[in-house]
């Protein structure tokens, strides 16, 4: 038998030859997903506002105009003013900053913690794995908001006292700003709530990818572990991770608002949508504009992240590529 | 002919929640330069674990408890991981059952194929890619150079198995272990893959270990065959001797010619009744006893050892059975009685 006879001419190739790059392919899939594209717009807008909001706001978010308290939307105050006469639009734009920075920072912290814990569990296995899984189970079994309240109530006073002491000891103005205590507590609580999800995801990815055939095949070819990690494990774990981070960003922003709503979030003067919603709720019958603005923003962002997450999930799922 | 690979007393077990799964229980066989050895046996009899043990590609729960794996006289089980990596791919190539999942979906074929060449052969990226294109053509994938840029999902199952074969042969190993490489493929493509491996073998002189549970494939490709059951080798013979003169009841059973246990007539057996023993709780007597129509009292007290059969046409014909099945008149010869 000759080589020519052996060629697989009879086998049908199921593929369009034009698709050569998987990431390009994923982007094409994402763009083809209408909801995901619709979702991207408010998210891009949100990040834009967060970056440039302060330059766009018509008023300072703190500026109080006692002559125009609780004013309805008008050409001067597009979304009206609150009880202290502060411009609602300006506060919403500033609130985007809070939401985005809280989302990014807390996601970054929980992602790093989750990566470390999840990799340790997945790679070392045995007792370490057992401990990490147990820890994540315990953390996840506690209601998130309750956890945040408990953290806030128990740590806030001691932390503030410590700041005061540090100030007295160092005379560094930094320790005067109790706002930092709030931020640390909010970020900490969010990271604590969110790291177990990332840790379990990473652990699962490592366990599943490690036992995949292509990893076995690569090991059978004598490829070193480091190379297998960077070429096989990490790229293949990327898809699910990107999806999780997208959902996590939205989730963190919503949680931050929930904290503020419950009074354990970022405290004034930094505007937070959750805080605005809870304030607005008190008089939504007489002054619905106070509630409407931040509530609509919150809802839009939540839905957008959900749609984008779904779109990413479909676009990045290698099983659908037939790989 | 000289011995290339000599496996002695290999024992591999898995740690499980309650005790151990004894997957490979003292397996000894050898492979000569250029020879093709068929390995047959039912699912779960330890074929894959045996071959993965050769280069210690086992899951974490597994441990090799005993044995030697001598490749040209050097014991692979004594090598450190770095030395072992040079053997993997460099000396012993492997291809696996499922070509659909054996390639990394995120890396194009060219990069994937050139990595072992760069790693084992010290080639430059450019050299490795050029060699990869040649290899693709060698395994019957035309237009190799263009296909290097493509990704696994752009190849069909048969094509992917060709790529796997090209990769495993790229560093010119002395042994190619093919673990059921055609099981997941269509029948027509199966035949093509078998032909391809035969052609490559004849051209390069690589010794092949071909694992399958399909005896007909073995008949077409192997020089010698070992039959495994419950982690033991129960029979070993040159391929003709095995088919003409099988001596172990299990081998006879695999060929679909085993008389039925208990003697019901009119019940032609093409498969062996019953199921293999629990590998966590192996008997200390013949592991085939519960399914064997030839069993005698001794079979329940002593585990037979693999030894040369009597009146063998070939000195290499060995079987692990207390009974010379040629001498036994089994009551009802169900095989072929009716259908
Ligand atoms: N990770 C594991 N943990 C526990 N037992 C295992 C593990 N992997 C394999 N085994 C056991 O080892 C035995 C031998 O498995 P092996 O994969 O070698 O069988 P095989 O002969 O290759 O079968 P197949 O034809 O299905 O591929 C099986 O009975 C299985 O139960
Ligand atoms: S030793 Fe006995 S039980 Fe085992 S295969 Fe031979 S005859 Fe059957
Ligand atoms: Mg197997």
Summarize the entry for a quick read:
The complex is a heterodimer of chains A (323) and B (339). Chain A contains 11 helices and no strands.
Helices, strands, pairings?
The complex is a heterodimer of chains A (323) and B (339).
Chain A: H1 3-6, H2 22-32, H3 34-56, H4 88-124, H5 126-141, H6 144-170, H7 179-210, H8 213-220, H9 225-262, H10 273-281, H11 289-316
Helix pairs in contact in A: 2-11, 3-4, 3-11, 4-5, 4-7, 4-9, 5-7, 6-7, 7-9, 8-9, 9-10, 9-11, 10-11
Chain B: E1 3-15, E2 20-32, E3 36-40, H1 47-54, E4 62-71, E5 74-75, H2 81-87, E6 92-95, H3 109-121, H4 125-138, H5 144-147, H6 157-169, E7 175-179, H7 187-204, E8 207-211, H8 215-221, E9 224-229, E10 232-238, H9 239-244, H10 249-254, E11 307-308, E12 318-319
Bound molecules: adenosine-5'-triphosphate, iron/sulfur cluster and magnesium ion.
Magnesium ion is lined by residues 47-48, 179 of chain B.
């Amino acid at each position: 038998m000759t080589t020519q006879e052996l060629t697989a001419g009879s086998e049908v190739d199921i593929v369009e030859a034009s698709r050569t790059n998987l990431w390009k392919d994923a982007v094409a899939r994402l763009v083809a997903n209408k909801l995901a594209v619709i979702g991207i717009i408010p998210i891009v807008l949100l990040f834009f506002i967060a970056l440039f909001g302060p330059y766009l706001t018509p008023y300072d978010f703190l500026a109080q105009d006692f002559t125009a308290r609780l004013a309805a939307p008008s050409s001067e105050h597009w979304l009206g003013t609150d009880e202290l006469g502060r411009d609602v639009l300006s506060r919403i734009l500033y609130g985007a900053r809070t939401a985005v920075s809280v989302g990014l920072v807390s996601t970054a912290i929980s992602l790093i913690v989750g990566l470390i814990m999840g990799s340790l569990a997945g790679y070392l296995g045995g007792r370490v794995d057992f401990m990490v899984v147990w820890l994540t189970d315990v953390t996840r079994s506690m209601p998130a908001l309750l956890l945040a309240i408990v953290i806030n109530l128990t740590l806030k006073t001691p932390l503030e006292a410590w700041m005061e002491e540090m100030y007295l000891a160092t005379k560094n103005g930094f320790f005067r700003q109790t706002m930092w205590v709030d931020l640390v507590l909010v970020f900490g609580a969010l990271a604590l709530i969110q790291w177990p999800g990332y840790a379990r995801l990473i652990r699962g990815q490592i366990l599943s990818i490690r036992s995949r055939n292509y990893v076995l095949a690569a090991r059978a070819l004598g490829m070193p572990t480091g190379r297998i990690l960077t070429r096989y494990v990490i790229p293949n774990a990327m898809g699910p991770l990107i999806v999780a981070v997208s959902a996590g960003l939205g989730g963190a922003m919503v949680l931050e608002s929930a904290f503020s709503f419950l009074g354990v979030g970022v405290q004034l003067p930094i505007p937070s949508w959750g805080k605005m919603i809870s304030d607005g709720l008190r008089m939504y019958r007489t002054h619905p504009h106070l509630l409407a603005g931040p509530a609509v923003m919150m809802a839009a962002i939540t839905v957008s992240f959900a749609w984008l997450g779904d779109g990413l999930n479909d676009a990045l799922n290698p099983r659908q590529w037939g790989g | 002919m000289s011995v290339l690979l000599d496996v002695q007393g290999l024992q591999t077990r898995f740690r499980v929640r309650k005790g151990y799964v004894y997957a490979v229980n003292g397996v000894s066989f050898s492979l000569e330069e250029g020879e093709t050895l068929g390995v047959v046996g039912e699912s779960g009899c330890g074929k894959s674990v045996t071959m993965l043990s050769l280069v210690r590609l086992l899951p974490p729960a597994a441990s090799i408890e005993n044995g030697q794996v001598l490749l040209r006289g050097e014991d692979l089980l004594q090598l450190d991981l770095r030395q072992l990596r040079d053997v993997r791919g460099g000396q012993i190539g492997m291809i696996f059952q499922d070509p659909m999942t054996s390639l990394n979906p995120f890396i194009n074929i060219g990069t994937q194929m050139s990595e072992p060449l760069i790693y084992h052969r010290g080639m430059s990226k450019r050299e490795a890619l050029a060699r990869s294109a040649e290899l693709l053509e060698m395994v019957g994938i035309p237009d190799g150079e263009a296909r290097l840029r493509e990704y696994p999902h752009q190849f069909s199952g048969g094509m992917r198995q060709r790529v796997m074969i090209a990769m495993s042969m790229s560093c010119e190993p002395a042994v190619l272990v093919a673990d059921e490489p055609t099981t997941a493929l269509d029948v027509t493509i199966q035949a093509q893959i078998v032909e391809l491996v035969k052609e490559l073998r004849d051209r390069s002189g690589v010794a092949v270990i071909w694992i399958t549970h399909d005896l007909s494939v073995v008949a077409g490709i192997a020089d010698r065959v070992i039959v495994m059951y419950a982690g033991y080798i129960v029979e070993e013979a040159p391929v003709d001797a095995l088919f003409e003169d099988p001596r172990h009841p299990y081998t006879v059973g695999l060929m679909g010619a085993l008389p039925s246990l208990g003697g019901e007539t009119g019940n032609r057996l093409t498969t062996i009744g019953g199921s293999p023993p629990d590998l966590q709780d192996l008997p200390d007597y013949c592991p085939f006893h519960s399914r064997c129509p030839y069993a005698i009292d001794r079979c329940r007290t002593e585990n037979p050892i693999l030894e040369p059969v009597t009146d063998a046409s070939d000195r290499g014909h060995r079987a692990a059975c207390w009974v010379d099945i040629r001498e036994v008149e089994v009551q009802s010869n169900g095989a072929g009685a009716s259908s």
